[in-house]
Amino acid sequence: MANLQQQSTVDRLDRPSAYFDAKQRQRNYHHRGDDELEAPTEDPLAHATTLYVGNLSFYTTEEQVYELFSKCGEIKRLIMGLDRFNKTPCGFCFVEYYTHEDALDCMKYIGGTKLDERIIRTDLDPGFKEGRQYGRGKSGGQVRDEYRDDFDEGRGGLGRALQLERERAQERERERERERRAQQERNGGGRGGGDRYDRRDNREQHNGGVRDSAAVDDYHDTR
Fold it and tell me: Is it the case that residue 25 has pLDDT exceeding 80?
């Protein structure tokens, strides 16, 4: 029993972020087979001072983020994530501290807590680079908000891609309904005029080509 190592149930605060893991898998995929990738690369998060903060409400302000995150240390820089097209907040930001320890304290005490009634998540980040403040989704926001199938008021409602598709489907249905109505009006007008003349011709033929005065009167009454 003495040789058994006690396993910690607490995750490391300085574990690689989801962003770093995704970038590493992407590099390995594009350079698979290269000898240099066999050697482990140095973890760029070992001394990281920047945090990626996700799951923010679109309505959370920069001042709110600054007030909360400054409780763990002096903030060097705060960059709000923006919609690429509208330049409005789209649910994430970067918080840069002066020291690695302050960043870890922030993950320990703030990560997983609520801000604007939303549970925010924090990840160590290799460092902000120009351009990363904009959403990478097709509609300008974050990719995770493109295909969300639930309605989230704090994240812009329904997933944007699904919302756009539903709006297009509704517009197509409205257009088809307009075409059906126009077709019915055209067909209804043609049948009405044709019926009057058909009744007149049938009565004339029934009387051996001699006009029935009553049929003529009916025809004029319907005009």
Answer: no
